[in-house]
Write a structure and sequence with these properties.
It is a single chain. This protein is of the alpha/beta class. It folds into two domains: about 260 residues, 3-Layer(aba) Sandwich (Rossmann fold); about 180 residues, Rossmann fold, CATH 3.40.50. Helix 4 packs across helix 6, helix 9 crosses helix 12 and helix 10 packs across helix 15. The longest helix is centred in the N-terminal third of the chain and has 22 residues. The chain is globular and about 70 Å long. The protein binds alpha-D-glucopyranose.
Length: about 475
């Protein structure tokens, strides 16, 4: 008889219901990849639970009714819904703290503190309503980390059975606001932890402290977080937990990101028909108002406008390449200051640099398929997904040797890697890229090498499965 492992997988966002960034991609694809690993020996019953943000797009939700959780001297109502995604049960939690907060992530820390504390604890309480109980609570980032702390606390306070906690770290610097008052109101005590004092009231550190396993989204990030440079003040604490930390590289949804049948492209292609890719470059050049010329290197940035992503370094590098012949497209939204800097860059070089300050998934795909090089000069990058998508689409990445970029791009083989977070280092890498670009055969060899990489979820999901198995033994 096969053994079943029940996993309650919590996230703030998951594609296709609601997506803001990379977390949404991962939470949308990893749980399904895990379920499909079920075999004769082990059945993985992974179920996804999400907040019913007002912006969630989901049809045909079945109401599961209302229940309540004690809060302070009274109670708070929880409303739950259910749907399925390729056979996987997906639950949505609603309630006043979620309804009253319009966006997925608010600029008002207090609203988010209320929302995600409520969500993390209500998701635990949901289990009793559906009469299904997790062996493992798998949380992602600060938003859902309290579910692990809450689950441990229930075991202590109420003698509940052991439920293992797995916390995947997509972005350590975001630890969440002070939630001490809120969780105590839900009847959860804050323990005397060995966390630094400032961290004892924040969801992410509390979740890290309570988890049985911590997973960073790439092997390199798993070691970087132990250093002062990337550890955000938790490096010493994390060093003590070293044995429970691993790094598992994210995969990408290779069915959705497939140049051979991506509906957003003007011309589909694959590794055997790479010559067809040129049509996409021409279409992209037309669309962006560039001169149509396959011989000019077309550089691209598809990124949140954020200092994390090193967009300022890219702007400075492009600015200092006056005498070099290239075209560049910058796509993304974010920090108003960086958006402004992007606009002025375009004004400075109107024919050479185009800027589209919005989120546009279709245009992003056309850029992966039509541009020659993708710039990712990130100051830190826990994993990064764009560089993997780019390689799959024959676009060569130029990346800083940080986190997952370091684990996915091989210098001079599948892309160009530089060390120092400085625009001169990036510029040197771009120039090296342009030099190879001018040698047709050598360039194609790099494109082939990138397209031949396997970035599917399969291998990574298997590592999570092994981890789950070790935790329920
Ligand atoms: C965060 C990280 C990014 C990672 C993504 C998914 O957005 O910044 O590097 O790829 O999470 O794990």
């Amino acid at each position: 008889m096969s053994k079943t492992i029940n996993v309650l997988f919590l996230a703030a966002e998951a594609d296709p219901f609601v997506k803001v960034g990379g977390l949404g991609d991962v939470a949308g694809s990893l749980p399904r990849a895990l379920r499909s690993l079920s075999n004769d020996d082990v059945k993985l019953d992974v179920r996804l639970v999400l907040p019913y943000h007002p912006v969630v797009k989901a049809e045909g939700l079945r109401p599961l009714g209302m229940f309540s959780m004690p809060r302070g001297d009274s109670e708070v109502g929880v409303e739950a819904f259910e749907t399925t995604l390729n056979g996987m049960p997906v639950y949505f939690i609603n309630g006043d703290p979620i309804r009253s907060n319009g966006s997925v992530y608010s600029l008002d820390a207090k609203l988010d503190a209320e929302k995600y504390s409520f969500f993390s604890l209500a998701a635990l309480a949901l289990q009793k309503q559906i009469n299904w109980f997790a062996d493992i609570v798998h949380a992602n980032d600060w938003h859902t980390a309290l579910s692990i702390y809450g689950s441990l606390s229930k075991r202590w306070e109420e003698g509940a059975r052991h439920v293992a906690g797995v916390l995947t770290l997509h972005n350590l610097p975001f630890m969440g606001p002070d939630v001490s008052g809120i969780v105590e109101n839900y009847g959860i005590k804050l323990a005397q932890t060995d966390l630094p004092e400032w961290a004892r009231v924040m969801p992410l550190p509390l979740g890290l402290w309570a988890s049985d396993a911590i997973v960073a989204v790439s092997p390199t990030y798993g070691t970087e977080i132990l250093t002062q440079e990337y550890g955000c003040g938790l490096d010493e604490f994390l060093q003590l937990r070293r044995d429970t930390i691993s790094g598992v590289l994210n995969g990408i949804d290779v069915d959705s990101f497939n140049p051979a049948d991506d509906a957003a492209l003007g011309m589909n292609f694959d590794i055997n028909t790479l010559e067809k890719r040129t049509a996409n470059k021409g279409l992209l050049q037309d669309k962006l108002g560039f001169a149509r010329d396959p011989g000019i290197p077309l550089l691209a940035m598809v990124s949140r406008m954020d200092v994390q992503k090193g967009v300022d370094l890219a702007f400075a590098a492009l600015k200092s390449m006056k005498s070099v012949n290239f075209q560049a497209i910058i796509l993304g939204t974010g920090d108003p200051k960086l958006e402004e800097a992007a606009r002025s860059l375009h004004e400075l070089f109107p024919d050479k640099i185009k800027v589209e300050l919005r989120y546009d998934a279709g245009l992003a795909r056309q850029i992966y398929a039509g541009s020659d090089m993708l710039l990712m000069p990130s100051r830190y990058e826990p994993c990064g997904l764009s560089q993997m998508i780019a390689m799959r689409y024959g676009c060569v990445p130029i990346v800083r040797a940080a986190g997952g970029l370091n684990d996915t791009v091989k210098q001079n083989e599948t892309g160009f890697v530089f060390e120092k977070a400085h625009h001169m280092s990036l510029m040197a890498a771009i120039k090296a890229g342009i030099k190879v670009f001018s040698k047709h055969e050598q360039w194609q060899k790099m494109q082939f090498a990138g397209m031949a990489q396997d970035f599917s979820w399969e291998n990574s999901a298997r590592k999570y499965l092994e981890l789950y198995q070790s935790l329920v033994k």
